[in-house]
Amino acid sequence: MTNNKSLLIAVDFDGTIVENKYPKIGEPTIFAFETLKKLQEKGHRLILWTYRYGKELDEAVKFCEKHGVVFYAVNQSFPEEEYDSKVSRKINADLFIDDRNIGGLVGWGEIYRIILEEKPEHLKPKKKKGLFSFLK
């Protein structure tokens, strides 16, 4: 997935960045903060996208800041966005990292590889052949 394009990446907190101990804050998931910091170093913008709100949300944001990650936005598509109950809460992001994906969280090492390293051969698009190449 490596390219020059900066991605907007929404990241869940409980069960993704930290072990799920909601409403408490669990231990950091292995390689989560290292990967998030590397994504930011490469120019990607991170959004904390979580169920948390109020005091629990403030604690999560401070916990991440303590571990070196300051988010571009929190529970919104961009920092200046104002909440409007008439508009969908779904945010605009290129990627979503969440433990509730089908198949669960793949692990931060794999997330790092997928986003920051070159795609393996079997994931690269196949070269298109001519219209009648199947006749050869």
UniProtKB/TrEMBL annotation:
Domain of life (superkingdom): Bacteria
Keywords from the UniProt entry: Hydrolase
Protein name (record): Hydrolase
InterPro entries reported for this sequence: HAD-like_sf (IPR036412), HAD_sf (IPR023214), Phage_SP01_Orf1 (IPR016769)
Gene3D superfamilies: HAD superfamily/HAD-like
Annotated source species: Mesonia ostreae
Molecular function as annotated in GO: hydrolase activity
